[in-house]
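re the bet — no i am not wrong, look at it urself. input seq straight from the record:
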Amino acid sequence: MNGKEAETLKKLVSLPSFVDKKNNEKKVADFIFKYLKQFGFLKVSRQKISKDRWNVIAKTKGTPKLFFAGHMDTVPLKNSAQMKVKEKNGKLYGLGALDTKGGIAALLTAIGEMKEIRNTSFLFYCGEEYGFEGMLNFLTKNPGKIGEVGIVIEPTDLKMWNAHRGLIEISFDVEGKCGHAADENSGVSATKAMMKLLNSLELYLSNFSHPVLGKSTLNVAFLHGGLCDNFLVGYRGNIMPDFARSVIEVRTASEKLNSEEISSFLEKEAKKNRVAIKNLSVVHDLGSFFTPEDELKDISKIIHSVVGRTEIISPQKKGYSDGQLISQKKKIPVVYLGPSGGGAHSENEYVEISSLLLLKKIYKGILGKYSD
């Protein structure tokens, strides 16, 4: 990896863009804004998200046909060594090198090598790792057409990722009635009722499936129970507990399944078990995503011309990402496409340098195709 390509990637990785009380995406946003301003075929602007946090938006002349998006933030820093860019054995190590500054560096380099780009809009946005506020803000404040197809930068090993399940996260309490453990009729165990509710929910979710996305699944992320006024008493076996709390996460494969449907089911099951649902809170209510391959033929051909093949990533191997929000809001086909590497979200995150060179060629081919 030589010249501007190496410098762009190393610069991006060296700039902190994790979000805490002292840091955010501002330094990366400033770098990208300044970089893009040098090209006369781009109109570049900032979109405020909150204090010192900005999305960077760039547009070309012509009718919007292509939309590119990449998130600037990274997961939180685990140790300071992650900010020191290290190159070894054809790999570049550092926080965000793979997810997703490597892909952004490839796109910026591709833009820089084009004589002109038309019919394209770009978004470099905040907060993908922290609640999707950058993408949500962009989609809310930009109601018009952004393109006919969208590409979201994520690590995909140069493969097309065109489908994933949705993400529904709910926290709730179950309220029962205290009683003596020796007498089942003296109370209603909140913890036993909670287990019945969760088992029933898992069976219910099997009704919501998709031929490509597979089954909807349940993850019980947190579970606690006892006496609501003193958890320590709950460790004693002679008391029937009146309180249980759970945080559940559903990976939904069906557009028919949402937080309202799940909440309604839990309420009905609670009544059957003589308990009450309390303090129900929806953390995420994000739908499933699927773009048919035949809507991505042009992109598929370009990938094949560069790497000699086009592969599709199984939706069972990937989590949720906010390209789904673009697809849902703008009603356009969307695909994730990015470099190869490993260790995303870990202390040993790296991107394979050779994949960035191939990715740059792919991005250039796509930009050229949609500029016609």
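see?? The chain has a mean pLDDT of 94. told u. also Residues 3-164+290-371 form a domain with the Aminopeptidase fold (CATH 3.40.630.10). so pay up
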